Amino acid sequence: MSIILLLLCLNLLAHASTFHARPVTHHASQHSQWRSMKSTKEDAGAEPASCRTGNPIDDCWRCDPNWETNRKVLADCGIGFGRNAIGGRDGEFYLVTTEDDDPRYPTQGMLRHGVIQSEPLWIIFERDMSITLKEELMMNSYKTIDGRGFNVEIANGPCITIQGVTNIIVHGIYIHDCVQAGNAVVTDAPQHYELRGISDGDGISIFGARDVWIDHCTLSHCHDGLIDVVSGSTAITVSNNYMFEHNEVMLMGHSDDYVADKHMQVTIAFNYFGQGLVQRMPRCRHGYFHVVNNVYTGWEMYAIGGSANPTINSQGNVFIAADDDSTKEVTKRESAPEDEEWKSWNWRSDGDLLLNGARFIASGNVTAATYAKASSMVARPASLLSSIIPAAGVVNCRIGQPC
């Protein structure tokens, strides 16, 4: 291993250890203290050295000192397969003024009232909020939930469902301790409500939706998945999120028999998979998955897995295996021991850093053309991730201050 890669490994491992040492609290900003890894070389009166890191999303909007006035610029900063998600860019602002929730009769000022409206809306918050939903939050199309400026968490109840809709952005929300709910009437549009069955208990459930972008959220401790993308969903980007302390992190694809997911395209980019994660980062079925420029700081079972012949294009990631010799393998195929069909599945590792004994078992075709449908952006060199990744999770933006 070269000196540069060794230093990168030590830097990322040291940083990961700070999360183990830090007590887990319920303040989103405390889960985004990544900037200690960035350069501290700043000139008085000059643009901060931490402003531009090579992360194309953040470099698009965070250097603007008037980010709060120009919030909607974010909608033009997307990358990957979900880059066309504009959320509520073309609509008015909606201000959440209360933590209260009424699944059947939501009123003005509630988060639920904003997300069910028919017109595009850019939803922002009046102050720090901890919202405990009584039933899953059913979103309508063309909505942005933008938590920048305050500590906003959705926790200790059902969480977000993005079902059968399009053009959704969720940014800057701490989502944790999500639970199942259901067998209840829930309003999902101004003139429509329905009896919902029992929900899965995901942090964010994306079901039969397209053009969805989940960015700069912090997620942990949910009943089922942190972010699940299923049932014909496509054109999805999951970026800049910090995920920790959870078992089944991300499921991509409804079931091995649900062939409609063959059209699924998902980009997973610039995320930090932190301490206490077990598996599914992600677990994929059928479709095309670009896993690019993420940092993995250990996994208890495996990092990337799948079944039903998904195409997985792993590029420019840093995989830091745990010290346990039984968990060095990055990949896992779900197939019968005697079935060698998996050897034809197109899974490649291109420019990944495999550290502390991490192993990635590639399969299928090695030619780049094979991965065209699983390519959504240009990967940055994995050696640059110590400066690109530090802003993952909820960013500590305060009104009137640089972000």
TrEMBL record:
Recorded family membership: Belongs to the polysaccharide lyase 1 family.
Catalytic activity: Eliminative cleavage of (1->4)-alpha-D-galacturonan to give oligosaccharides with 4-deoxy-alpha-D-galact-4-enuronosyl groups at their non-reducing ends
Region (Disordered): 30-50
GO molecular function, one term: pectate lyase activity
Principal EC category: lyase
Sorted UniProt keywords: Calcium, Lyase, Metal-binding, Signal
Pfam families: Pectate_lyase_4 (PF00544)
Gene3D superfamilies for the chain: Single-stranded right-handed beta-helix, Pectin lyase-like
Pathway in which the depicted protein is active: Glycan metabolism; pectin degradation; 2-dehydro-3-deoxy-D-gluconate from pectin: step 2/5
UniProt protein name: Pectate lyase
Enzyme Commission numbers on file: 4.2.2.2
Cofactors that this protein relies on: Ca(2+)
Cofactor note: Binds 1 Ca(2+) ion. Required for its activity.
Signal peptide: 1-16
SUPFAM superfamilies the record matches: Pectin lyase-like (SSF51126)
Record domain Pectate lyase: where: 128-325
